[in-house]
Amino acid sequence: MTTDYRKLFALDGKVALVTGGSRGIGAEIARALSSAGAAVMVTDILEKEGQGFAEELRSQGIRAEFLKQDVVVESQWEETVAATVKKLGGLDILVNNAGIEKMNFITETTLEEFQKILDVNVSGVFLGCKHAVRAMRPGGIAGNGGSIMNLSSIAGLVGIIALGAYNASKGAVRLLTKSVAVECAQLKTGIRCNSVHPGLIKTNMGDHFLQNFVDLKLVKTTQDSEDAFMKSIPMGHWGQPQDIAAAMVYLASDAARYVTGAEIHVDGGFFAT
Ligand SMILES: NC(=O)c1ccc[n+]([C@@H]2O[C@H](COP(=O)([O-])OP(=O)(O)OC[C@H]3O[C@@H](n4cnc5c(N)ncnc54)[C@H](O)[C@@H]3O)[C@@H](O)[C@H]2O)c1
What we know:
The chain has 273 residues and is of the alpha/beta class. Helix content is 47%, strand content 14%. Residues 19-20, 22-26, 44-46, 69-72, 97-101, 120, 124, 151, 153, 198, 200-201, 203-206, 209 line the site of nicotinamide-adenine-dinucleotide.
């Protein structure tokens, strides 16, 4: 029997939920999943930007909705998952993309700062996995299995100066993903779970990351930061949100039906050195 690979990568008829989707990598993931055929629910704490983005997608004929959602609030996860199933007819794909980053030396990081980063980047992903699995597993309100993708980072793989809280959070996302993957596979839920590890990507957060080095007086200018960081990337340049979004289309699709608990590095070769 020949396999129709175009069909294998298509997301027609699927419903995706993307957190932190009002801008940056999340917005591009929503564009990519919808261009591959999925209906998309975009959520974020940035309401105006999110509403505008969903309208932009709808004006292109895409089935898209926006809901204001703070990923650290469990009741909002219950509401968001229920609303996605009700408005778009199911839930097959979850992208836990919402995240925050702040650099500081470990000696200067307050417990509140540390806990805030862990809360959004780890508890937010935990809650997303919990409520998506409940909905996607057999007997759940969506009930067709599915694919969950969690945004980790190269900072979930290696330590970086003054990035302790963020490193801890993204390392936790990496292993939480593997645990969810194994549990979902062994319980025969039909749900896969994988992590994606971007390198330096050109977004608000990417720019802010370079600015941190200046603020901490590690370099003089953001150009110095950029020059230093580029030396650690074999390809020698930034990644774009599209590079992450393309990996998400693959992981969301049936082309990745035997892929779970994996980590996809989209980093210009950073982790290979
Ligand atoms: N840009 C990079 O270089 C880079 C590298 C590695 C990993 N990442 C990860 O990719 C993801 C997206 O990053 P980005 O570069 O697009 O950042 P960004 O700051 O441009 O976008 C993040 C989005 O998450 C939203 N968000 C923040 N806290 C939230 C909360 N509590 N509830 C709901 N939404 C919330 C923000 O409002 C924003 O729209 C993050 O998880 C980030 O850690 C980014």
